Structures are given as C-alpha cells and as structure tokens.
Amino acid sequence: MNVLVQPLNRVIQVEPGANLLEALQAAQVPMSYSCMAGRCGTCRCKVVDGEVLDGGRDQQRPLEANDAYVLACRTYLTESCTIEILEPGEVVVHPARIVKATVTAIEDMTHDIKRLHLKPAKPLEFSPGQYVQLQFTPDHVRPYSMAGLCGDGEFEFHVRLVPDGRVTRYIDRELKLGDLVRVTGPLGSAYLRRRHEGPMLCVAGGTGLAPILSIVRGAISEGMRNPIHLYFGVRSPRDVYGLDWLAPLQRAHPALKVHVVVSSGGNSARERCGLVTEAIEQDLGDLSGWRAYLCGSPPMVEAATQLARCRGVAPDHIHADAFYPQGN
Ligand SMILES: Cc1cc2nc3c(=O)[nH]c(=O)nc-3n(C[C@H](O)[C@H](O)[C@H](O)COP(=O)(O)OP(=O)(O)OC[C@H]3O[C@@H](n4cnc5c(N)ncnc54)[C@H](O)[C@@H]3O)c2cc1C
Ligand code: FES
User: Which of 3, 57, 265, 287 has its CA 20 to 30 A from that of 316?
Assistant: First the structure.
C-alpha cells in the first residue's frame, strides 16, 4: 500500500492498519506533533485522495463543508491514498510532557485578571502561542496559554477570573506562592510561523493577549521584520492591561502597531470604541498574503476568523486559539 505525501511528492510504503503519524515519522517526513492523543491539533493534515480510518476530528478547528482534514495521530491507513501535510517548512515538534512547577508570583493585572509565574523543575520546550494544561489539584485542571518565551526560565500566564468559575476561583482564593502545579504540554497549533515574511494580524480578546504577546515576543526575538498589526479588544477601559509590555516591544520593532479597542463604556476622546473586528474592518483592506493569529473568547475568534477569510487570508494562514470552556 502506498501513501503519496504532498507537497513533497514522496511516496511511502505502509502496512494496512498503520497509524498515519507513525508512518510519516518512520519515513522521516517533516511533521508537527505534540500530544499524540488527538487533543492539540498540531498534526492536522488533509486527505486529498482515498479513504482513511479517522479516529478523531480536530476539535480546535470545526470544518464547514470540507471534511478532508484529519489528525494524523488518530488516523489509520486502510488503502493507498494521497495526504497533504501542512506547512512542512514550519514543523514544530515538542513532544508533550508533564513537568512540575512552583508558583513564584501571583499579581493582580486588573480587577479580574491575575498574572501567574511558575518555575518548572525541568525545562519544557514550546513554540510562541502554545498552551499547556495546568493541574492545580486533581480536581482543578484547565488549559492556559503561555505569555512568554521558552527561554525565559519561568512560565507566565494571564488568568481572567470567571464569575462562578471553578478553577479560577481556586486560583483567586487558594493558590499561593510555593504551591506545586502539574504542567502538561505544550499543546496547540496556533504557534508563530517563523518563515512567514508578510504582514501579521494579531488579534487578542481579553487574556487572549497572553498567547499574542508570546507570538509578538517570539517574532521580535527571532529577528522577524514583518509588519505586525496587534488589535487588543477588551470590554471596558478597566479591562485594559499589558500596555507597559507592549510599549518596549514597539520600540524594539517599529513595524508593530498596537490598537486597543474598548467595546463598551469607553470614551471616544480617550480610546478607540467598538468591536475589534469593526476596527480591523475600518483600518485594513485586502489581507491576501497575511497571516492571522486570533486568540481569546470563542465569539471574538469566530468573528475575526470570518473577517480574515473575507479579506483574503488563506484558511491555512489563520491560526486561532479560542478559549472554549472545558466543563467539569
Ligand atoms: C486552548 C485554551 C487556552 C486558554 N488559555 C487561557 C488563558 O491564557 N487565560 C485565561 O484566562 N483563560 C484561558 N482559557 C480558558 C480557561 O481554560 C478556563 O476555561 C477559564 O479559566 C474558566 O475556568 P473555570 O474553571 O474558572 O470556569 P468554569 O467552571 O469552567 O466555568 C464557569 C462558567 O463560566 C463560563 N465560562 C468559562 N470560561 C469562560 C470565559 N473564558 N468567558 C466567559 N465565560 C466563561 C462557563 O461556560 C460556565 O458557565 C483557555 C482555554 C483554552 C481551551
Ligand atoms: S499530535 Fe495529533 S492531535 Fe496532538
């Protein structure tokens, strides 16, 4: 049985029933992966021709009418087929691990946003924009996105306290300096594409600023010169935070333009009012050739995804991390 791997135009031989990711790895095809369990979306690829046994859909990326995407780690080969791997030039391999980390700082950023710093007992490699699962106790586990870079030596997280939120209430009321947290990851496919040379649209809603900061910090530290248009949407003026970090980034990278947009209770003489998507619509025209990184609340991410598509961003150049509630 043969698998034709595009765009590399390589044919690999596989046994019926082989796992697609393992077959690609055995043939040394450049392929991103992380969790190996159908959770992170990193190993997504497209079935162009033929049938495969699909053991799990990519939850991170609901697929309209197009059903052709699969997660390679959950896919088994039953007949010869053609697979398109996505972005072979942007491969990211950080096998997900579990490390223990110690809480070294808990700071108030706004009335309902806390910044946590965790020092891992062992280094954990990740790409800018990825997230991890934080387990504070066996009953308090949630995903949070890193705001810093892998070389920082500590993880930085921004956590918005959700009214009646089980885990954020624990973080607010019980978590203290010196506590141990189990960190599992990294996860997520909305990581910085380092080879891209065109403009970048970075849209953060609320604590979606954390992964967006990581992406911008990563781009600057990699010496990328791309124009970066960062839109930071918040509900009201008191939800704005992080401007003190953005200002030095702008000095280091003059092609970084930052727009803070307040959706309600703002004063148009003082700040930009409305939805982030309205601001983007007003400011930017055709976005062909751009990459979009969209992080934060699901409705904002959905609206920004639609807008980016309508304005010409290729679907595979839209990298979105919606902060879906996890339940239990
Ligand atoms: C990939 C990923 C990355 C994430 N990164 C971050 C991050 O960097 N920072 C961050 O603050 N959060 C992030 N989240 C969200 C986070 O994982 C939790 O869902 C959030 O902290 C709420 O947890 P909780 O247990 O306190 O609330 P829950 O007990 O799970 O929920 C309580 C109630 O609040 C609602 N709710 C839950 N979350 C939200 C929300 N965000 N907005 C509005 N209502 C909500 C629920 O539907 C429910 O009704 C991320 C989520 C995902 C999937
Ligand atoms: S490696 Fe396949 S979904 Fe995570």
Answer: 3
